Amino acid sequence: MKNKWRMPHPATMFLLLTGTVILLSWIFDIYGLRVIHPQTGEAIRVQSLLGAEGIRWLLRHVVTNFTGFAPLGMVMVAMFGMGVAEHSGFIGACIRQSIKKNTSERVVILLVIFLGILSNVVGDAGYIVLIPIAATLFQSVSLHPVAGVVTAYVSVACGFSANVVLSTLDPLLARYTQEAAATMSFYRGNVGPFSNYYFMFASTFVIAAVIYYITRKNLLPALGNYTGSAPYGNYKSLTRKEQRALIIALLTGVVYALIIAFATFSPWGILRGITGSLTRSPFIFGVLFLISFAFGLMGAIYGFASGRYRTDSDVIKGLSQPMQLLSVYFVIAFFAAQMFACFEYSHLDKCLAILGANLLTSIHTNSFVTLLLFILFTTVINLIMVSATAKWAFMAFIFVPMFAAMGITPDLTQCAFRIGDSATNAITPFLFYMPLILAYMQQYNKQATYASLFKYTWRYSLYILLAWTAFFIVWYLLDIPLGI
Questions:
Q1: What is the four-CA torsion angle of 385, 386, 390, 392, rounded to 10 degrees?
Q2: What pTM, to 2 d.p., does this model score?
């Protein structure tokens, strides 16, 4: 008999996860689960969502849970600019100009992989901006667009710690590592943003090789041929008017980029932080808007120069074009927002993570084996607590002193954490951008669910974890400096 079981719709899945969180919070509250925060000494207890106060909290915050869902505003802002760029024909013109008949699939795949890994230099923008472009790029060379979504997604998610330049994550993690190291009277070193730079630079190419191998060997054969229409598959050359419009739009983008660079990196830069750093500067906080505005500006310029746009009403149509995709995303995001908010309110994530950390510290073995167990532990905790900074904010104060007593330096401990923290990003349902990824997939496959995504991504997480850990072991045994 044919199996009738199927995975529920993504919105239903998040609703069920919310129910599971509520039930677990009630059970653990009954048993009085509590832990001590290692940095502050504060007692953290699981809060029941089925108690009187929990129910009142949930009813008071249903709306604000949704409107305060962090990715919601970011996605909307990014989609406005991308909508104009797509509606005006600017993105299509760029692809038609760059993708020729003899363009190989290998070039497109590698381009998407490296852009995904390097996108963490501007935070989470890769999840929102790169993934829809990757789907179109794959489709333009007759590859399945869902393969583009998956390849870009795992490149951004699993490669989040690696980069050839300093990313926004480096100074944030280094700050907690240094604070944890400062609690040890015998440690006099300094952990800075570049403390893992050499290793993460080299890791970029290791991760890219693994993703490329799995994409060619497993993902593309599994998806097969795409039967939908390929918008740029005929490689129709740009007309002279379109070429001129594209040049004007790109030059506008270059001027815009120079202005932003001057406002950020010059001595008079107003987009730097008060202290002159970029860590918590207006540039970092507003980078997604700056990117979206760039796409929207170039799209509008291209539209008017090519004759596609004649009035401001045409631009507004471009701004509203992504609403069809966002309508699906809004439904999924509503239930996801409730689940994330309930999880945070209950303190389940922190309690389980700290309990696991305490359990690991109780295992007595040699330092090298413990370091490998720490990587594995981090991959597991990352399935329920995705934010790297939130995890490291308390894990650093447990593991940095613990490993230091074994002769392992804080920068090595931080490096091991970053491997485990990135590898399983692609398979956890608790990733903030999971609703958006599922919405992208449903553009090309209406039956796409979390199970569909997991089926395509679990190999990436497993192989990246194994390859990256093996690379880490070799680096450790050869005693190569991790960074500056």
A1: 90
A2: 0.87
